[in-house]
Amino acid sequence: MSAANTLRADLQLIADWVAPSSRVLDLGCGDGALLSWLNRHKAVRGYGVDFDVNNVVRCVEAGVNAIQGNLETGLAEFEDQRFDHVVLSQTIQAMHNTEQILVEMLRVGREAIVTFPNFGYWENRWQILQGHMPVSETIPYEWYNTPNIHWCMLGDFEALCAKNGIRVLERVVMNEEKRIHFLPNLRGSLAFYRVARQPG
Amino acid sequence: MSDLTRSVGIVEAQIAEFDTPLHLASGAVLPAYQLCFETYGTLNAARSNAILICHALSGHHHVAGRYAADDKAAGWWDNMVGPGKPIDTNRFFVVGLNNLGGCHGSTGPSSINPATGQPWGSTFPVVTVPDWVRSQARLADRLGIERWAAVIGGSLGGMQALQWSIDYPDRVAHALVIASAPKLSAQNIAFNDVARQAILTDPDFHGGDFYAQDAIPRRGLRLARMLGHITYLSDDGMGEKFGRMLKSGDYQFGFEVEFEIESYLRYQGDKFSDYFDANTYLLMTKALDYFDPAKDLNDDIVAALRKATARFMVASFTSDWRFSPERSREIVKALVAADKEVVYGEIESVHGHDAFLMLDEPYVKLMRAYLNRVAEEVNA
Question: How do strand B174-178 and strand B311-317 relate by DSSP bridges?
């Protein structure tokens, strides 16, 4: 399962951003697929963090070091600037303490990689125009059972970064497995950001 | 595969005699001593599949199996150690021992001091976790085990696993530290001291030399165990099991046993005072109190752990207030800061501190997954 050599497309894009032999912290690591791949192909060192003990068990099965923990309470287990990359993949929209985790990621790491479903994607807008909360491949929940509580579009995320003195190093917007360059906030369903602290 | 009822079967305790003096942390020297131990499973040709089980306060070498087919109780961790169990004796060679100072066959206060021909009693030296680990290393030498595939322990046993990883970094591949702490809190030491006071002030204690008086400080031991037992259970767990249940259905307006919890605690206390040695109890609680691998390093636990080369699994239980998850997270934080590999599970359980001896499903799954990884590494 996690030992497969092919990684889900969105995780592959994250993996491509990770430097070989770097230290990686993967927040909301799930079954450890990303770290398992990175361990084997890029010789990274790192830990996954997940709230669910069953995911910790899956990580152990995949040979990944996982630490059970609640991202909502911060990253107290980790000292400042321990990691080269801190990853938060499709989780930020489901968090209560959105701003805090973003700040914490750049406290413990040099760079953060954040991905989230883009609420501004045209199919979402279309469903709203039709009078319904959007349900799609990247947001497969009904309004009443969704874990996603903090929706944002590209501009919203970038404004939050700016407010906290965080600069965007790189942005990729995808739709299914294609990169979107033209009208990304309308045509892209999944956003990927590589961010760091403003120098000084 | 997940058959938790299978057992290692009939087992036998063994004795290893050591006549090289053991220099203890206190400055005292134990000229010679014996360790009582048991083994389960088979040591492979590469001697790479050995696991050491370190016991907690009242534990001993009888970890799994039975001495006779009609023994009522099996070893204290029989639910975790056996064929097909998470600590799988089909794959691992498992060693359990009784620590120095114990009362189950290893040299301790109730043993005869060859120099006097009398029980050691009050003259038995205080032993610490590092002392134990050194004595365990000698047992490993005796058994031809250069490097443990894993050292595993809960509570005080977890402290020994941690100490092993620091004192013998080349001899431990994995340390499993369960329901433990990097050192005791003031509250924990306080509980231990109340237990000790119960024993020390028992008129039958005779300053520790009660053997010659043909006395046993039962009242003290009983109180110590009752107090300890309260701290091993959670409020919820106790409430679930006993609530306010009365033995006779109504208040008796007296001081005899009325509530079921009183009956349970008194029974546990009585049973314990029948077989456990009061001096051993004192020593074990002192070993807990003194445990502090960072003490000689300006209280820097990260510096202490930096020496370790083992990989770690740390686990805690949500309702454990004697060694709470926060204490385990301190260990995890230090391990991460020391750049060590660590897996951490915080297991949802109502069983309090005792949960490390129970079979909450996520705990069993985590142990099984982690030890499977260990087994694969050593080709067990």
Answer: parallel
